[in-house]
Amino acid sequence: MITAFDIGGTSIKFGIVDQEGKILFKSSFPSDIHIGGERIIRKIIQQIGLLEKDWQIEGVAVSTAGQIDSHEGMVVHATDNIPNYTGLEIKSMIERETGLPAEVENDVNCTALGEYWKGAARDSNDFLCLTLGTGIGGALFLNGSLYTGDTFGAGEIGHMSLYPGGRPCTCGNSGCYEQYASTSALQRSVDELFKEETDLRHFFEKVRESDIGSLEVFHKWVEDLATGLQSTVHVLNPSLIVVGGGISEQGDLLIQQIIKSVEPKIMPNHRRRLEIVAAEHGNDANLIGAAKHFFDSKHIRK
Ligand SMILES: [Zn+2]
After folding, report:
1. 93: CA distance to ligand 1 center in Å?
2. Cα dihedral 288→64→283→98 (10° resolution)
3. d(CA 289, CA 291)
4. What pLDDT sits at residue 302?
5. Residue 192: which domain range?
6. Is residue 117 part of a domain?
7. What is the pLDDT, as a whole number, of residue 123?
8. What whole-number distance in Å separates Cα of residue 59 and Cα of residue 294?
9. How many whole angstroms from 179 Cα to the centroid of ligand 1?
10. Which PANTHER family does the record match to this protein (predicted)?
């Protein structure tokens, strides 16, 4: 068994995962990302020491935000959300300090790997995994494996241009897809609608009650989401799109509206067999996917 960590914006989730992808134990601690990349990894190393008292750990799998060189286990590029993260050699740092083999992969890629191994994409060799959150993450699974691109940057669909010259984006451009179709973008419209900070669960209750203002905001947001998917589907012709991120807990309400909005936008041959589904593992997918990446890497290296 190995230990897996998922470094997110607010918390670091971790667990013990076995060879079959079963999570035997899980917990979390605050990530305090402002302390910077190196100190975050130090906290993880400390946690590994504690876990080793109770578990026979054979390796460490890390899922994290940022563009990750998954062979070297280092951060190729990260935004300033986590200070001093770009260039950090996570894999060698963990291996040096713990003596355990370690592997690192991007968090959206881990969601895709987790859903492929044990979840909504288990029967699919060509799919797109979309995670809706602060931004929009994308992972491409082609011919049964992750497509990472030349410099591990493939799948950044959150930065497709949706409204050129529109809202400024963290990437330096403006009008990017994620500025309109991420969960944060929805949250912004919802707060404007209710004129105060509003829990998205409350908003979705209103949508279920067919509150007119809420439905309008919901439909407009899904329409933007679907416009991005329209381009993606035409470029990639996937058989499946898995929608992840916390908001996927809205299940059918969300998925059916996406399907309704996407279908008229795409050509008949592209929608012939296209399925759009919610991710099955929620927050656990990244731990399972990081473990999958770890086991596969070890296998390949032997
Ligand atoms: Zn952008």
Report:
1. 30
2. 60
3. 5
4. 34
5. 124-279
6. no
7. 84
8. 8
9. 8
10. BETA-GLUCOSIDE KINASE, ROK (REPRESSOR, ORF, KINASE) FAMILY
